[in-house]
Design goal:
heterodimer; A: mainly alpha; ABC transporter involved in vitamin B12 uptake, BtuC; 15 helices; about 0% strand; B: about 260 residues; alpha/beta; Rossmann fold; four-stranded antiparallel beta sheet; globular
Chain lengths: ~270, ~260
């Protein structure tokens, strides 16, 4: 359980760096909320509580909702935040309805599904940790391998395109990485609060670092530490969901960095 | 289209959906000039640069960049976008940004090493910024940020420089440094084409000009192309500054040698 928490915290914290620098934090929130119908759908299709099926479902519906918001904004001229709000609300509403339906079914069916709302790290099984580790290796591996490309596409995408970098492909890849950052923590942190674990460590890390590489790994370390602290605290308190505790810890770290950081990380130099 | 030209467009039109941004522009920029693109706000100057680079799709017409389709040749161009096009609160120092100019030749999987950092530092020294190589980009002045962008183009050793308002809102020292670098590059046989906003310095800084206001009003060597009639036509009779006034004081700054 602790190993799972660290894995997911490091992954979503580190990958959140790109979400924050690309101003896509809200897209992450849409993906997280809209993951719920995918989680329930994956459970229904698999016929049992199967984490790979549920995470795959989350990935699909999360990306569909983000895609819907993109179409609303870029093709139908809806304002960006209204489009994102629509995608988030629609996805989450669908998920809650599906969840109520499943919970009415007889049998042990709904076991553990509710933990996807607010998160329950204790619901992470030993086999789940292997799944999370696989997702983490893929997400962090791709980001590390293509770090330079992701850097130019994040800092100056128009120039990067002129310079011959495959920016459209990199954009798709970065969206995929954001989706990975979100789904990896859904079980432990929950769809409602997951995006905070993606965003808060990166916000803190920006105050403490002066290069993208340092920001990436610092955000990962802070994310891992926040998730671990949250998981341990909630495990020690019966009935306390993990998500809120993780997010409170991560937000406290970000708050401290914002208060104490700026004139250290970014300003102090010749 | 003229072969051997650094940039050539034929009947180029661009439309963003609310009227034409460019209409029937046939531009031929000869190799080896320091050229300016001038025109009033909304004349389509930035759009022309982006269309030449193949970054916006033309509604009509063709573009030849260094003799071929932009998608095939644009990586050989030193593109210097407007400073405001990026968020400078990005975790990087000046040398990091200049090094990005080398990422393409490194390929997607290789990391920059000592050789790349030294080349980036050399480019920063050429624009007079060697001493600020490790400063966070968000803490540089506007002119210094502009020089970082120029160094990112310089490090590529391109054949052609395309600059979008490189002198807008920069201090006198940066203006002099940027001009000195562009002149030195032309002396090495490179071509420069820059969107420029200040008619007062046009004759001092450039030897070739294109006047644009949605359509191309004139192009050619500056003494031939830059007439009062053409200026009045391009700016709709509201010329911001007399073109033949005495050289402005800023021109004197050009004598400043680029910092080593």
């Amino acid at each position: 359980m602790a190993a799972g928490a660290v894995l997911l915290g490091v992954t979503s914290g580190a990958l959140g760096t790109f979400a924050v620098l690309r101003r896509q934090s809200l897209v992450g929130d849409v993906m997280a909320h809209a993951a719920l119908p995918g989680v329930v759908g994956g459970y229904l299709l698999a016929g049992e509580r199967s984490l790979p099926a549920m995470l795959a479902g989350a990935l699909v519906t999360g990306l569909v909702a983000a895609g819907l918001a993109w179409v609303l904004t870029h093709r139908l001229k809806v304002k960006s935040e209204a489009a994102l709000g629509t995608g988030l609300g629609l996805g989450f509403a669908l998920g809650v309805v599906l969840l109520s339906y499943v919970q009415r079914q007889p049998g042990a069916g709904s076991a553990g599904l509710e933990s996807f709302l607010y998160g329950q790290a204790a619901a992470t099984l030993r086999a789940d940790v292997l799944v999370l580790a696989g997702v983490a290796v893929v997400g962090l591996g791709v980001a590390t391998l293509l770090f330079g490309e992701l850097k130019v596409a994040t800092f100056d995408p128009v120039w990067a395109r002129a310079r011959g970098h495959r920016v459209a492909l990199l954009d798709a890849g970065l969206t995929g990485l954001l989706a990975v950052a979100v789904v990896i923590g859904l079980q432990a942190v929950g769809v409602v609060l997951m995006s905070a674990l993606v965003v808060a460590p990166a916000v803190a890390a920006r105050q403490l670092t002066r290069s993208l590489g340092a920001m990436f790994w610092t955000a990962g370390a802070l994310g891992g530490a926040s998730a671990l602290a949250g998981a341990l605290l909630s495990a020690a308190t019966p009935g306390l969901a993990t998500g809120p505790v993780v997010v409170l810890v991560a937000s406290a770290v970000a708050g401290l960095a914002l208060l104490l950081g700026p004139e250290r990380g970014r300003a102090a130099e010749a | 289209m003229v072969t051997g030209a650094a940039v050539a467009t034929a009947g180029l039109s661009v439309d963003y959906g609310d009227g034409p941004a460019l209409r029937d522009v046939s531009l031929t920029v000869p190799a080896g000039v320091i050229g300016a693109v001038v025109g009033p706000n909304g004349a389509g100057k930035s759009t022309l640069v982006k269309a030449v680079l193949g970054l916006v799709a033309p509604a009509a017409g063709r573009v030849a960049l260094l003799g071929d389709r932009p998608q095939r040749t644009r990586h050989r161009v030193g593109y210097v976008p407007q400073r405001s096009s990026v968020d400078w609160d990005f975790p990087a120092d000046a040398r990091d940004v200049v090094t990005m100019g080398l990422y393409r030749e490194l390929g997607p999987f290789r990391r920059p090493g000592r050789a790349e950092r030294e080349r980036a530092l050399a480019a920063l020294e050429t624009v007079g910024m060697g001493h600020l190589a490790r400063r966070q980009i968000g803490r540089l002045s506007g002119g210094q940020q502009q020089r970082v962008f120029l160094a990112r183009a310089l490090v590529q050793d391109p054949e052609l420089y395309l600059l979008d308002e490189p002198l807008a809102g920069v201090d006198a020292a940066s203006e002099a440094a940027i001009l000195a670098v562009l002149r030195a590059e032309r002396a090495r046989g490179k071509t420069v084409l820059a969107v420029h906003h200040d008619l007062g310095t046009l004759r001092d800084y450039f030897d070739w000009v294109a006047l644009l206001n949605v359509t191309l009003r004139a192009q050619g060597p500056i003494d031939a192309a830059l007439t009062d009639e053409v200026l009045a036509d391009t700016y709709g009779g509201r010329v911001p500054l007399p073109p033949r006034g005495p050289a402005r004081a800023a021109g004197a700054g050009l004598e400043v040698a680029p910092a080593r």
